[in-house]
Design goal:
alpha/beta, 4 helices, 3 strands, globular
């Protein structure tokens, strides 16, 4: 759970397990961020449909790199430098 009272979601079968988890969390009032490049489905179409439905239901959609920098919040310091080295 993130410091803002939300969840960061990754996983397999975006159109089944991930989708149901996201919908349950949203219905409980949590902020949910789905990491689009860290979820999968057997077909690309299923993944796209699932991400679209989760977003319409209120989930935020992000990517791994975007989320790492978002969580960092500031573009300075040792942790930021380590993050840059990790991504490059």
């Amino acid at each position: 759970m993130g410091s803002w009272g939300g969840y960061i979601i990754i996983g397999i079968e975006a159109h089944i397990c991930v989708y149901q988890t996201v919908i349950d969390l949203i219905s409980e009032g949590y902020q949910v961020t789905v990491v689009s490049d860290a979820v999968s489905s057997r077909t690309e179409e299923n993944k796209i449909v699932a991400i679209n439905k989760m977003q319409r239901a209120g989930a935020q959609i992000s990517s791994t790199e975007m989320l790492l920098f978002e969580l960092q919040r500031v573009a300075s310091g040792d942790r930021f430098k380590a993050l840059l080295n990790l991504i490059k």
